[in-house]
Amino acid sequence: MPLLEDGRLVPDAWVSATEDAPLPEGAVIMPLDRLEQAATRNAPLGVSIGNDVSVEALAPWLPRLSLVQVVVPKSKDGRAFSQIRALREYHGFAGEIRVAGHVIPDHYAMLLRCGASTVVVPDGADPAVWEASRHVVSIAYQHAQSAETPLALLRRKVA
Amino acid sequence: MPEAPFLRPPEHARTYRYDAVDRAFLAQRIAEFRGQVQRRLAGELTEDEFKPLRLMNGLYLQLHAYMLRVAIPYGVLNATQLRQLAYVARRWDRGWGHFTTRQNIQFNWTKLIDTPEMLEALAAVDMHAIQTSGNCIRNTTTDEFAGAAPDEVADPRVYAEILRQWSSLHPEFTWLPRKFKIAVRGAEEDRIASRTHDVAVQLKRDAAGAVGFTIHVGGGMGRTPILAQPIFDFVPEAEFLRVMEAILRVYNALGQRENIYRARIKILVRDLGRDGFLDLVNAELARMPVEPYRLAPEIVQAIRAHFAPPPFAPANGGAAALERATAADADFADWVRLNTRPHRQPGYASAVISLKPVGGIPGDAMAEQMEAVAELAERHGFGELRVSHTQNLVLPHVQLKDLHALWQGLRAAGLGTANFGQGTDIIACPGLDYCALANARSIPISQQISERVDALDRAHGLGELQIKISGCINACGHHHVAHIGILGVDKHGAEAYQITLGGAPGNDAAIGELIGPSFSYDAVAGAVETILRTHIAQRQPGERFLDTYRRIGQAPFKEALYAAA
Ligand code: HEM
Ligand code: SF4
């Protein structure tokens, strides 16, 4: 499925490992419970977690990981926002944070402000809609993890 | 979009004044919603996807139409805003609005296509409907006597405004398991039903005079009423938002999401236990950086400036003038006794405008009445108003010498009822007349009870009495914390009403106890009368209904209600 970064569709360098198929070559996104099988390979390593997983569980792996993907089951389930923020703020994770599942354009700006990097969007999605939604409100009253808004609390940002 | 025509607020009304950034924010937000409405109308958003978006903009789908719920941040309003609400009511609704227990106003007859325009009209007076519903941080409520009450240690409006800004489109907390309601008070006396909120904040001062916060968490009503538990005794001002963040982080991660009846923070706190919950909050605090979440004194100062005292006049014999006027007019004296509260400024009082005429619809105000009140507020009260959680309006700062003129003006507009805190000051939700979730009607029951209570009060004097009615177990009408609570239920397809006794919302907060089997639509007002006659027969001098009930218990009331059957 298409990958959105910075409001544009970009090529995806990663392959997701499926349940029990053999591991693909190169950069691979592993399910959490199979992570160990790929850990010793000499290729970029990612993990995919559900939004009900505490990112604490990933802590020992983070130094080895280049990507964490969070899968959102329903658009109104906002746990991923806290997971993403915690990865950046508590764990200082600097790799790619990817959001997949039921994500809608109205999430986009907030996901980025929590620290997400990329979103897996549905086939045929119009990146312009996402880009527009991201910029429609350019003012924020809160501290954020994204590099573009390191302003202090209630010091409002105008992008 | 054309430059919105901003309407100038009264000079001395202490509402938070938007600057260009705040206004740009609102304009952008409306543009966003306009886009969402268009995408919905074009079928690009499913109703499932659109629903949380419209809810976050205050738009509900009710039985007969959409309902737009407009935020009155912490219940603080100025005359220009009230006039604009009247305009909205007339232009896009049916000429009235309904003030709610959440210190908001609802327009019950809204068309989806009109909503962006309504929001633009509201933006012209710096008002909005952002986060008045949906699973996000809702409008913070506070004491309607803020900035006037003599017992206030610090001004809750300042911190409520800080919470408003901090929670507006919060990137992490806009998709919570369920709605989240915060109440802030600045006085020891709890006039805001604090412990029924997800988080209740009480302002305190330490020995050095610095502001801090006592925090309770995990209150709520609905089908599982729970009173909030204390978790922090004194959070220093600088740490205020850090602590709020930590509480919400725990809730967002661990609050239940499968069953909406178990999704409020009250269930999480109950299941983890107060200590277990507190441990998790402390674990978050231990990991959180301090600086980015520090509430800087300059920011508090800048916001406090919006709520500076208005230019009060010297007392100048107002008390004597008032005494003469009350001596000459018993009706006026009643109104002063019941509907005014002391003010910290000599020569002033706060005046409550009852939206509870006997036999009327609690909380409803006609557009003409809103305009009359706006006019009176400008003439006698710096153009500043409040909405109380009891669904009344308040002029916080009125000179004693002006009270008589104010009262006459109110009477002329049909707003002179003297009953604040009395049995006819009933809280009622919209119920089956409007609400899609209702089991039973609330409004006509409220009207019937109001008539009966008024007659009893005239004959026997009932004193302070809180009657509250909800049309279903969601408890929008606060019935759990009423002295006499009435809950609409469905009994084999017919409207029926359960009665609970002994609840209270304030410092002595308690959840009411069910007295017995439910009553039919035709019998419930009579049952309330029976309860009150029992109280009158049993009371000791000076006892309110609640005192009598707490002293003698359920038995005499049960006996009176059910013995004949
Ligand atoms: C269309 C009309 C309305 C709908 C659909 C609605 C829906 C709900 C629901 C579902 C709940 C239960 C929440 C829970 O237990 O988690 C609730 C609670 C509540 N609502 Fe409403 N409501 C409506 C109107 C009102 C009005 C008019 C008021 C004010 C008069 C109000 C104030 C409240 C309050 C105070 C609570 C209970 C406190 C709490 O547990 O948070 N609501 N509402
Ligand atoms: S208590 Fe029930 S009937 Fe009344 S407004 Fe709330 S949801 Fe509707």
Describe the protein in words.
The complex is a heterodimer of chains A (159) and B (565). Chain A has 159 residues and is an alpha/beta fold. In chain A, helix 3 (105-114) packs across helix 4. In chain A, strand 4 (28-31), helix 1 and strand 5 (45-50) form a beta-alpha-beta unit. The mean pLDDT of chain A is 90. Chain A has a single domain, classed as TIM Barrel (Alpha-Beta Barrel), CATH 3.20.20.70. An eight-stranded mixed β-sheet of chain A has the order 2-1-8-7-6-5-4-3. Chain A has helices at residues 35-39, 79-89, 105-114, 127-135; strands at residues 3-5, 8-10, 15-16, 28-31, 45-50, 67-72, 96-101, 118-120, 139-140, 157-158. Chain A starts with a strand and ends with a strand. Chain B is an alpha+beta fold and 565 residues long. Chain B has four domains: 18-123, Sulfite Reductase Hemoprotein, domain 2 (Alpha-Beta Complex); 148-306, Sulfite Reductase Hemoprotein, domain 1; 318-412, Sulfite Reductase Hemoprotein, domain 2 (Alpha-Beta Complex), CATH 3.90.480; 427-562, Sulfite Reductase Hemoprotein, domain 1 (2-Layer Sandwich). Chain B has helices spanning 20-41, 47-56, 79-92, 115-123, 156-167, 240-254, 265-287, 297-304, 318-328, 330-339, 367-380, 403-412, 443-460, 524-538, 545-552, 555-562, and strands at residues 59-61, 66-70, 76-78, 96-99, 105-110, 141-142, 182-185, 199-205, 211-217, 229-236, 340-342, 348-353, 364-366, 384-387, 393-399, 427-428, 467-470, 484-491, 494-501, 513-514, 519-520. In chain B, a hairpin with a 5-residue loop joins strand 14 (384-387) and strand 15. The longest helix of chain B is centred in the middle third of the chain and has 23 residues, at 265-287. Chain B is globular. Chain B starts with 19 loop residues before the first helix and ends with a helix. Classes of the chains: A alpha/beta (159), B alpha+beta (565). Protoporphyrin IX containing FE binds next to loops of chain B.
